[in-house]
Amino acid sequence: MEYTIDELMAVTMARLIKDGDVVFHGVASPLPMVAARLAKLTHAPNSIYFAGTGGGMNPEPPFMATMTQDAVLFEGAEAILTVDYIFNLAARGEMDVMFFSGGQIDKYGNLNNTLIGSIDDIKVKLPGGAGGANLSCEVNKFIIWTTRHRKRVSSSGREIYTLVEKVDFITSTGFYEGGDSRERLGIHGGGPYKTVTELGVFGFDEETKIMKLETIHPDVTVDDIIENTMFKPIIPDDVEVTAPPTEDELEILREKVDPTGVRKVEFPKDELKRKFEL
Amino acid sequence: MEYTIDELMAVTMARLIKDGDVVFHGVASPLPMVAARLAKLTHAPNSIYFAGTGGGMNPEPPFMATMTQDAVLFEGAEAILTVDYIFNLAARGEMDVMFFSGGQIDKYGNLNNTLIGSIDDIKVKLPGGAGGANLSCEVNKFIIWTTRHRKRVSSSGREIYTLVEKVDFITSTGFYEGGDSRERLGIHGGGPYKTVTELGVFGFDEETKIMKLETIHPDVTVDDIIENTMFKPIIPDDVEVTAPPTEDELEILREKVDPTGVRKVEFPKDELKRKFEL
Amino acid sequence: MGIYPEPNKLMALEEAAELVKDGDIVAFGGALSVREPIAFIRELIRQGVKNLHTVGTAHGFDIDLAVGGGIVGVVQNTYVGFEFDFGLAPNFRRAVEQGKVVSKEDGCNSLIYGLRAAALGVPFLPHLNFETSDIMKLHPEFKKFKCPITGQTLIAIPALEPDVAILHARLADKKGNAVIAKPYVADILMARASKKTIITAEKVVDKLGKEPHIPYFEVAAVVEVPFGAHPTALYPDYTYDKDHIAEYIRLSRSPETFREYLDKYVYGPESHEEYLKLIDTEKLKNWKTW
Amino acid sequence: MGIYPEPNKLMALEEAAELVKDGDIVAFGGALSVREPIAFIRELIRQGVKNLHTVGTAHGFDIDLAVGGGIVGVVQNTYVGFEFDFGLAPNFRRAVEQGKVVSKEDGCNSLIYGLRAAALGVPFLPHLNFETSDIMKLHPEFKKFKCPITGQTLIAIPALEPDVAILHARLADKKGNAVIAKPYVADILMARASKKTIITAEKVVDKLGKEPHIPYFEVAAVVEVPFGAHPTALYPDYTYDKDHIAEYIRLSRSPETFREYLDKYVYGPESHEEYLKLIDTEKLKNWKTW
Questions:
Q1: Is there a contact between C216 and A78 if contact means CB atoms under 8 Å apart?
Q2: Do B20 and D5 touch (CB under 8 A)?
Q3: Hey, where are the domains in chain B?
Q4: CA angle B236, B239, B244 (to 5 degrees)
Q5: Is residue B247 less than 8 Å (CB to CB) from chain D?
Q6: Do C5 and A57 touch (CB under 8 A)?
Q7: Residue D45 belongs to some domain of the structure
């Protein structure tokens, strides 16, 4: 039996959700959507899933949507909550898991969804961080994901990284300047918990709060990680391979959660050609 | 055609509501309830009436209730709002008219609904001011009413006044210590507008903010007012008699607004024997 | 702060009442003559919990019964009384005048701001100035401060997080999703502000079939108690029981006579079913005869 | 601050759009791919209002069209883009990068706190500290201060009172009572926070027959505009028009090609009815084929 990178990422992200967790994601979040729903249908049946700012509580969609406000995300929902109500859970310390991505992600897990360049000289206006600026300072933990870890080359020949030394603009706060800098300022919430990319999974070093490689995906080497990461992540001596999905997880993912393959839209086409043997 | 004191007070209070006003009252408020509804069926069809903390918006009850949470106050309501939502109108400066009463009412229109005696030695615990403490500092204007203006004698032979020199406890803020004392502290809202009792109607002197007699009811003399009021109200040279209800108002009040006579429950029995010729 | 993800929270009244501890801050739902969780309060009296601190807007029978039943230490409601039907709340008034219960009377909006701060997860909310009210003297926890934006005087109302909200619903599922009933008063806010919510419901069903007013994750326990608001009303199912209240008022004239009330209606019945045999429920159901 | 007691507010789209003035702070309802008041925005572009300041959470087509149509000066939304269907918002991005529009990007919760402060009638609300976010640099009006209760650092978010909220509803009556549709997003809060609300509705009826989400006294104007959210969705009546968006994205690649879009869909049609002839409304209505 084979599986693909989108499936590996979805399952890896799902497994970070514990039973009973309150789980939320924002706009443009196919993988978190799929992961949250998969967790609920596998090991975390009592997790509480708010399907984006549309506010569907524990929906049972027959398939997933590219758009977070799609009607399918209200199918079978136990309630439809207003967005302000959901955000209050975070400030109360009741939002266990959120998922954030970023156009740039730095070694402390700070995220940039706002602009490339500077405030006074905006090279690229990104869509914006939505709830991230506030919620990253409130939720119990957040999981960073990106399907664009691999560096690429711009039309002008410059190398472009997603995982950068320093973000151009901190939209969502990770471990800020590292160490206890976040805690010292009285920022609430636990900060970033893991970073899941198409190459591997990182945690954060307990003391320095720098990203620390935990696992690499089956067709990835530690050198691939180093080459595609602008900053120097902490790399332990023994880096294991990311645990594969189970057959059960794959079946539920493919048949019940996301039969139309919405999870794939986040990936560059070439990534989807990667196949792994179960 | 005859009319009675409950009818005169209801009509007098109703006429203080202008068309388009937002009108609210609290608990234990039969006369305000009847007045608000009467205004809406006569000269103020576009007034916006919230029927107490039950939150019925513009209900069309076939009769009135003694209790402000009674189901009849939701009959025909355009919406049922939560109590916190209604209160916000006051802070926004959008609540035009409220009605407050008090166990004690002083010359500046401060109201006591909390206790007789002092905080450290409570002789009588009154039910409480409900929204008054906050809302009296927010609503555009409030109307004070009482059906207990007449002094009475306690079992120990002491004279008891409702309209007192100084309240034992300020629950709701009138013109506080008079003059510009209320304004100077930055208290919002216009403060008390009129006081309607079973003996007459008072306004407030523009400068001193002391209660100023405006009209007396048909069977009342200025001496009656003086004798039953502990403080010295301002009494102008010419005090007119309170304008009588029109036949229309009486008919609508008796037939459509309050056919069961809920407005009468606030009055001592003897007061209801007073009859006036139209 | 509290999240209750469990799928089945259905329990007996006795078990749910044990979730309320001595000294807890409790918010009873409903108001005045409607939808107060009276069956639950009777059980609290039977269990003899002590020194509860009640918070809420204008209430009546619930607070007076709880005070008369000896389970209350502090009352932070904004009004406690009947209306022009039965007047002052006899047990509440007596207990406060005798110094047995502390009245920490609040204003409706400042009370709501406290609950709202808790619901929002912020340490306080700024209320427009009402420093001229002596209600401020009963609340040393309310602090005057200068607005960091405009410089005006405001009152900081600290977050008021009840240990438990007890709400009587018309319908609930076993998880705790609950449909309350008009008037909603402050119930939804109370559920959100509290550490946990207990739902007593007229009926517990497998599937609600409609949008809940209270989402299940706020709810720690669900109890099925038909006529659970009696003698207050739950519209449109049943109305306020004036005959019962008249008897209550009569028996509340002294602590001794009130003991008769408690013996007959609280301690006497072996169960809620037995209690209901003392009530003419048919009459209450057929109220809508106007 | 605004109360609208009038019993009949029904008016033409043209007349309602005149209520929006140059420089107004405007809150568009809905979000991203749903229930945005697009017919109204087309009329605003035709009337050539200038320099609007938009506020809201995550939006897409509405803001991008308004920016492309030249009526926006400042965007305070928290996200402007399509999702994984069509990616970045082309007109918005170009205008910001060229300095023609100011992006005053906000966080969803801080944006909501501003609206909520306005809804509550208080000058500010205290938000948990997020001083580490550079979003603070785009908002000099947000002030760090010390909590008067706990001493912790908080961020004061000043009241944000839109001049007008424009919400697309499923149903409204002539007075303005309006039933919106799932998802509700921030519409109810926007109506409450704004000086006035304009309701565009699929259908205007004499009697709603159900509880409104928006009470009439917040509403200054009611306009009947079937398919008024097109090309965004209004569930369950019609879905997101991906074909239309694809055409939009294609024509947005330069200001010159975007002029073609405006000529065809905004300036071209004589009326909203004429606009609808350009759309396959049947297909959009029959979306629920899964």
A1: yes
A2: yes
A3: 2-267
A4: 150
A5: no
A6: no
A7: yes
Number of domains in chain C: 1
- The Cα of D35 is separated from the nearest Cα of chain C by a number of Å equal to 21
Cα separation, C16 vs C277, whole angstroms: 23
Residue of A nearest to C120 (CA): A88
- On whether any CB of chain B is under 8 Å from the CB of C89, the answer is yes
Q: Give the tokens for residue B212.
A: 């100023």
Interface contact flag, D124 C149, Cβ < 8 Å? yes
Chains meeting A at 3+ CB pairs closer than 8 A? C, D
Confidence class for position C289, pLDDT limits 50, 70, 90: low
Task: Note whether A79 contacts D: Cβ–Cβ < 8 A.
Answer: no
Which of B64, B74, B8, B15 lies closest to B39, judged by CA? Answer: B15
Token digits of residue B256: 């459509």
| Total length of chain D | 290
Chain D contact present for C262, CB below 8 A: no
Contact D147 C127 (CB under 8 A): no
Any chain B CB within 8 A of the CB of C217?
no
Residue D282: CATH number of its domain: 3.40.1080.10
Q: Between chains, do A78 and C121 touch, taking CB under 8 Å as contact?
A: no
Q: Write down which chains contact chain D via at least 3 CB pairs under 8 A.
A: A, B, C
Mean pLDDT over all residues of chain B? 97
**pLDDT single digits (tens) B158-203:** 999 999 999 999 999 999 999 999 999 999 999 999 999 999 999 9
Among candidates D79, D131, D184 on the partner chain, residue whose Cβ is nearest the Cβ of A55 = D184
ipTM value? 0.97
May I ask the CATH architecture of the domain B2-267?
3-Layer(aba) Sandwich (3.40)
- Yes or no, beta carbons of D122 and C125 under 8 Å apart: yes
Q: Residue D225 falls within a domain, yes or no?
A: yes
C265, part of any domain:
yes
Q: How many CB atoms lie within 10 A of CB A120?
A: 6
pLDDT in tens, A57-102: 999 999 999 889 999 999 999 999 988 899 999 999 999 999 999 9
Is the pLDDT confidence value at A35 over 60?
A: yes
Give me the helices (H) in chain D, please.
13-17, 38-47, 61-68, 90-97, 108-120, 187-193, 242-251, 255-261, 272-277, 281-285
Please name the residues in contact with D204: beta carbons below 8 A apart, sequence gap of 6 or more: D10, D171, D172, D173, D174, D222, D224
Q: Give me the pLDDT at residue D85, please.
A: 86
Q: Which two tokens stand for residue B62?
A: 């076939």
Dist CA D260 CA D225 (whole Å): 24
Quote the Cα angle for D53-D58-D60, to 5°.
Answer: 75
Residue B83 confidence (pLDDT): 86
Per-residue pLDDT of chain B (278 residues; tens, 9 = 90+): 999 999 999 999 999 999 999 999 999 999 999 999 999 999 999 999 999 999 999 999 999 998 999 999 999 999 999 888 999 999 999 999 999 999 999 999 999 999 999 999 999 999 999 999 999 999 999 999 999 999 999 989 999 999 999 999 999 999 999 999 999 999 999 999 999 999 999 999 999 999 999 999 999 999 999 999 999 999 999 999 999 999 999 999 999 999 999 999 999 999 999 999 99
Exposed/middle/buried for residue A66 (C-beta within 10 Å: 0-12, 13-18, 19+): buried
Task: Identify the pLDDT of residue D273.
Answer: 94
Q: Tell me the pLDDT tens digit for each residue of D113-138.
A: 999 999 999 999 999 999 999 999 99
Contact between residue B3 and residue B276 where contact means Cβ atoms under 8 Å apart: yes
DSSP strands (E only) in chain C: 25-28, 52-59, 72-80, 102-103, 124-128, 143-146, 153-158, 164-173, 178-179, 196-205, 219-224
Q: Does D156 touch chain C (CB under 8 A)?
A: yes
Structural domain includes residue C143: no
Provide φ and ψ at A45, rounded to 5°: -60, -25
Cβ-contact C124, C156 below 8 angstroms? yes
- Are residues C3 and A20, on separate chains, in Cβ contact within 8 Å? yes
